[in-house]
Every structure is written in C-alpha cells, then in structure tokens.
Amino acid sequence: MERFGQVGNRANRRRGEIEAVIDGERRILCLTLGALAELETAFAADDLTALAARFSRGRLTATDLVRILGAGLRGGGNLYCDEEVAAMSIEGGVAAYAAIAAALLEAAFGGEAGVETMGDGRRQAGIGHTGAGHTGAGLAGVGLSGGGARDVGAPSNP
User: Fold this and answer.
1) Per-residue pLDDT reduced to its tens digit, 43-97
2) Which one of 51, 71, 84, 129 is separated from 16 by 20 to 30 angstroms, measured CA to CA?
3) Taking a C-beta distance cutoff of 8 angstroms, is the pair 29, 17 a contact?
4) Residue 4 Rama label (left phi>0; alpha psi -120 to 50; beta)
5) H/E element holding 99?
6) Taking CA 66 as the corner, what is the angle to CA 65 and CA 72, rounded to the nearest 5 degrees?
C-alpha cells in the first residue's frame, strides 16, 4: 500500500505536499503558510502551537475535516471553497477523510505520523514530534478502519 505523498510524481513531500484522490481526481494538497494562517483564523488559534494543540486533542468534527482539507486543497493550488469541499466524495468515507487530514498535518508539521493499532484492533492516525522546539499535532482520537494514512481513495490495482 502506498502512503500519501509517495504516489505519482506530482506531490513534493519536501514542500509539504501530498496527493489524494478526491471526487475521483488525484489532487495536490499542501498546508502552506497562508493555509495555516487560514486554519489559525478558522479555529481561533493564537499561533501555530495552539493550532497544533487543537489538532492533538484528537477530537475532530466533520467541519474540522472540511476546513483542513479545504485549506490543504487551496494551498495546493485548487480553488474550492469549504462548501464545495464538503460536497466532495472520497472513497473510504470518513476514515479516508481523516487519513488525508492526518497525512496533510504530518507533511505540514514534519511529524512522525503513523497508524497505530489500538488494543481493540482499531487503527488510529497520529502525528507527533520528539525533537526539542517542535510542536506535535495529532489525530489520536480519530479511529481508522482499514489501511490508515495511505493513498486512500485511489483506485486499487488488483
């Protein structure tokens, strides 16, 4: 299974870009400085540390996912408002939305995102930093079923 940012040749992981299939099209998402400023405003965060702390609580609403994906799409050069993003479909449902958000946050904050298996067999995406001066962001409370943070929504090759 391929992870976000490692599929195709379009996304540049060093710039914080990922690729995801949304509404049947492979799209570039990136949380640019402008996109992060947009999220600070949307979440009433005072700074990037507060924004990361907001995500690390692991309690994301559907509106939160729309805002994160919308900012990422706009940062990647896609011109969609949040209402249009909310109407888009992703194969894999809400778990796929959460996986894309986790991969996007990992790319932006430079964390070590992964998919961990919980004691009850559920999987969750999380992002964290271990170095001094780094801010952690995570989706610890977003349970994923299936492959987790990977190229969710891409057509599978049998």
Assistant:
1) 999 999 999 888 888 788 999 999 999 999 999 999 999 999 999 999 999 999 9
2) 84
3) yes
4) beta
5) helix 93-109
6) 90
